[in-house]
């Protein structure tokens, strides 16, 4: 596993080869139930922010491989309310578990926890920064849909400023020569730092305010919800929340092979009339979180096919 350490904090920690290794192992993990690769191992899930798919798919992945899960999804029920520091929480949890998955609303907290912890740490989302395991399952979904990741044209739609899944995925796709369109309002455009990083990898990236102009060119349309919880101004959120919406009529000019992805949960941005069509891949995308996270857990814990 071509990484700088035994943590999964940023997609920047991975080379192309490292990402390909994860996808290959995830394919091996498809349908892997009852294999006791992680028997006797414990995963701690520390979720300081709401989650459905990420938390449950990690729990499912761990239990399907024979492991156990402890943790919390409501920090209000922990000793943090008594003034305990995150550092002390982590030093306590590391004595109970073999690996920690953390989600936190502040950027950089996952990195800090990885520096404190003696056991591997996985970033399950830190504010509007990154979500590296979501990126791995997004890549896996794209590969399953198109048979490859290389040289595809990807459109990112919606909240590109606060949408951490977009930030991580764009960086990862730059290793595969993707052509990228960033479709948003000026207020929610992709942060310049990520655009510069993508361009530095010699990938074409174009910002636009028109979905219809670029739709016929796309192999993948990756939609995101407007991140209400990250807006400093509720009035600005109200202005932005209904701008982007995809329905079946809007896809009339798209390629028949277009696949629509979304990290979920969705808001107004994808109409339900797309759900039963070949375009829709977001439910399968969510399901792919289990084999991908099984692969990551086996790699970090050096278990099963990754046993040294």
What's the arrangement of secondary structure elements?
Elements: H1 16-29, E1 42-47, H2 53-64, E2 68-72, H3 86-93, E3 99-104, H4 109-116, E4 121-126, H5 132-146, E5 153-157, H6 164-173, E6 179-183, H7 192-200, E7 205-208, H8 211-214, E8 220-223, H9 234-240, E9 259-261, H10 282-287, H11 289-300
Parallel strand pairs: 1-2, 1-3, 3-4, 5-6, 5-8, 6-7, 8-9
Helix pairs in contact: 1-5, 1-11, 2-11, 5-6, 5-11, 6-7
Mean pLDDT level: 91
CATH class of the largest domain: Alpha Beta
Percentage of β-strand residues: 5-15%
Shape: globular
Secondary structure tally: strands: 9
Structural class: alpha/beta
Helix content: 25-40%
CATH topology of the largest domain: Rossmann fold
**Compute the gyration radius: what is it?**
19 Å
Q: How does the major sheet shape up? A: 5 strands, parallel
Question: Largest sheet, order of strands side by side?
Answer: 7-6-5-8-9
Explain the overall architecture.
By secondary structure, the protein is α/β, with parallel strands linked by helices. It has two domains: 11-130 and 289-306, Aspartate/ornithine carbamoyltransferase (Rossmann fold); 132-286, Rossmann fold, CATH 3.40.50.1370. 34% of the residues lie in helices and 14% in strands. The chain has helices at 16-29, 53-64, 86-93, 109-116, 132-146, 164-173, 192-200, 211-214, 234-240, 282-287, 289-300, and strands spanning 42-47, 68-72, 99-104, 121-126, 153-157, 179-183, 205-208, 220-223, 259-261. Helix 1 crosses helix 5 (132-146), helix 2 (53-64) crosses helix 11 and helix 6 (164-173) packs parallel to helix 7.
């Amino acid at each position: 596993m071509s990484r700088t350490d035994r943590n999964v904090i940023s997609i920047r920690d991975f080379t192309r080869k490292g990402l390909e290794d994860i996808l290959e192992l995830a394919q091996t993990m498809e349908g892997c139930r009852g294999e006791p690769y992680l028997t006797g191992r414990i995963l701690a899930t520390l979720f300081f922010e709401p989650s459905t798919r990420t938390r449950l798919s990690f729990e499912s992945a761990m239990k399907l491989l024979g492991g156990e899960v402890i943790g919390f999804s409501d920090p209000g029920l922990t000793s943090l309310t008594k003034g305990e520091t995150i550092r002390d929480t982590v030093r306590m949890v590391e004595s109970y578990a073999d690996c920690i998955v953390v989600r936190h609303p502040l950027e950089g907290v996952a990195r800090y926890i990885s520096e404190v912890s003696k056991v591997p740490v996985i970033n399950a989302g830190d504010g509007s920064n990154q979500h590296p395991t979501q990126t791995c399952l997004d890549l896996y979904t794209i590969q399953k849909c198109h048979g490859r990741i290389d040289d595809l044209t990807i459109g990112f739609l919606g909240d590109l400023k606060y949408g951490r899944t977009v930030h991580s995925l764009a960086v990862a796709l730059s290793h595969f020569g993707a052509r990228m369109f960033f479709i948003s309002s000026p207020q929610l455009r992709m942060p310049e730092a990520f655009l510069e990083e993508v361009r530095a990898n010699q990938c074409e990236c174009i910002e636009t305010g028109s979905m219809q102009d670029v739709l016929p060119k796309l192999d993948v349309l990756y939609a995101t919800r407007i991140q209400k919880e990250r807006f400093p101004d509720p009035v600005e959120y109200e202005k932005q929340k209904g701008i982007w919406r995809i329905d079946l009529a809007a896809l009339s000019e798209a390629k028949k092979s277009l696949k629509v992805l979304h990290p979920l949960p969705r808001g107004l941005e994808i109409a339900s009339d797309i759900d039963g069509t070949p375009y829709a891949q977001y439910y399968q995308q969510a399901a792919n979180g289990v084999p991908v996270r099984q692969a990551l857990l086996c790699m970090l814990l050096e278990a099963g096919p990754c046993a040294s």
